[in-house]
Amino acid sequence: MDRRPITVLDPHVANQIAAGEVIERPASVVKELVENALDAGARRIEVEIRGGGKEYIRVSDDGAGIPPDEVPLAFCRHATSKIVTAADLSAVSTLGFRGEALASIAAVAEVEMRTRTPEQLEGTLYEIAAGKPKGRSPVGAPPGTTVIVRRLFFNTPARYKFLRSDAAEKRHVADVVARLSLARPEVAFRLVADGREVLVAPGDGLLASAVAAIFGPQSAREMLAVQFEMNGLSVSGLVGKPALHYGNRDRMCVVLNGRFIHSPSVIRAIEKGYDTLLPPRRFPAAVIHLECDPAAVDVNVHPAKAEVRFRADDTVFRAVHRAVRRALLSANLVPGHSTLDDTPPRPHPSEKGVAPAPLPYPRAQSPGEGRTPASEPAGKSESAQGEWTVVRAAATGKTAVFREESAVRELAPSWGADGSFEAGRTGSGTRAAPGVGAGEESGGREILRRMEILGQLHRTFILGETPGGLWIVDQHVAHERVLYERILRDGGPHAVQRLLAPVSVTLPPARSGLAEQYRDKLEEMGFLLEPFGGTSYLVRGLPVALSSPDPSRIGQLLDEVLSACEAEGRWNPHRLAAAVACRSAIKAGQVLDRTRMAKLVAELSECENPFACPHGRPIIIEVGRADLERRFGRH
Fold it and tell me: Which of the listed residues 410, 435, 460 is the one where a domain comes to its end?
């Protein structure tokens, strides 16, 4: 191969190379132009595209505009008003600062700019194509700037042929505008694609409004506020309840000092905050805003400014993780939970004169209070199968059904003279806690503590009466969560049950090496292993939580846990605790008496996370009172 001499590239070729670094597709053009508009102080931005943006892009704003004599300079490489010296790069506070965006766009497209500052009486029209100016002239224009980009990559066909379909490119543009509106909820955005309005964000300054415009009002109602500060880093935003999960990460957005960024470490921190709250391979909706000193972050590590480098990456990870975790575990995460209104339900036509008030927690009653008078005994009937006991309160016509194996609730609910709901006692003598209004307490743990146990459904679900309606608790996953947290909290020698006869297990060679490597860790969790030659071990002790262990399943349990450690490359006590809890928990189909149900619910209410099992399955669901009234035609 003949050697070529070193030469300086032609400016036209250099501009096209720079354009390749900054402008990848129509969405890149939209991002750069919108960021320029935001840096100009725009409060309203409109984006219009045709043909996915390949043929036409228009970005209009009401920002500061550009003086006439500076318009040509805006299209020169490395021309910017945002930095002057190299020292300014250490504390960049604007979205664009390289001074390459307009030059890169103009190098591969036909560009028209109309701009006017508020002080000018007339605007400026400037046209440039393939990096070559075509003319400048005065024009009538409102304050602000409008940039129109036509025929993107018309002079670089190799780049053009790598663009996707119009529909695919339109999705990329919509994603960019959506993320920019989430980053700047105080700015009104409007996106029009092929004459159809795709996105409208109100710009009222409320992040919830932007989320509602992009994810939908229903999703916005399922978001929780995040607010946390740590070591000069402020974390705020909205995160979705665990019931709001998706098959990809498209609904996760990270914003740093007003700039949306791609940060794998922050995304991992958000997902870690949902640990054991989501099913496997499901992802939450989250919009996280980070605010920190610009000098603590380097935004100059990527040509498109999409990635940044934090000075203290571990601090950012911990702060985001704690912020998300606190927001989730301090809220009521019961699926179907809804805020109650204070409007009394409409009485049924057969209940004229009855005006029930909103259901508060049952108030404490003195012995005998709230029962059906002797002159109006509660009716009692047996079903044909003889397995169910139906108790009906004659005063109200309300009916409850319980299995005969459990204590029958002495049901006599009625509306008291003061308009409060009076619930009867349980057969076991337990009472509901003194009542508070439904609007006074929204915490799931407090509702669990005060919940009136009604009975067991299909020997699998615990039914409880709450101010919001009916809570249904899966007894297996509830007990699994209780045991999981107990194992992690109470590990150590005192949590070991020694076996009278040791159990021999044989592990695959790879797992055997891991068993030896993590032997001390396993012992801390309650597994006492003794080498027995080759890949065999004697199990002399097991965690106390592992009730009635099946010797044939012990080897499977160890193999499952060690295979998880092998896949993750580290010791994972959570996986072991989850596996032990799953095998030891109460099973579906197991009959529980009233005392055992109440104890399980009480233990669940003390858990750090009473809403999801270690595998992400929900523990509680709610059938709302409003839904019950609607289905019975009361509304």
Answer: 435
User: DSSP E strands: which ranges in 267-334?
Assistant: 283-284, 286-291, 297-298, 309-310
Task: Please state whether beta strands 245-246 and 252-256 pair in parallel, antiparallel, or not at all (unpaired).
Answer: unpaired
Nearest CA to 223 out of 247, 253, 202 is that of 253
Strand order in the sheet with 196-201: 132-139, 123-129, 110-116, 144-150, 56-61, 44-50, 188-193, 196-201
Q: Both 431 and 533 in a single domain?
A: no
Contact 152, 159 (CB under 8 A): no
Q: For residue 184, what are the domain limits? A: 11-201
Q: What is the CATH number of the domain that holds 143?
A: 3.30.565.10
Residue 188 within a domain: yes
CB neighbours of residue 397 within 10 Å: 12
How high is the mean pLDDT in each 10-residue block of the chain (635 residues)? 65 57 86 92 96 96 93 84 59 61 90 95 94 93 96 90 92 94 96 94 95 90 93 94 89 92 91 88 93 79 66 89 91 63 40 38 37 38 34 33 31 34 34 31 75 93 91 94 86 71 83 84 85 86 74 77 78 82 87 93 91 88 88 82
Domain count, the chain: 4
Tell me: do 521 and 406 sit in the same domain: no
Instruction: Answer yes or no: do 234 and 317 share one domain.
Output: yes
Helix (H) or strand (E) holding 209: helix 207-215
Query: What global pTM score does this model have?
Result: 0.67
Whether residue 345 is contained in a domain is answered as no
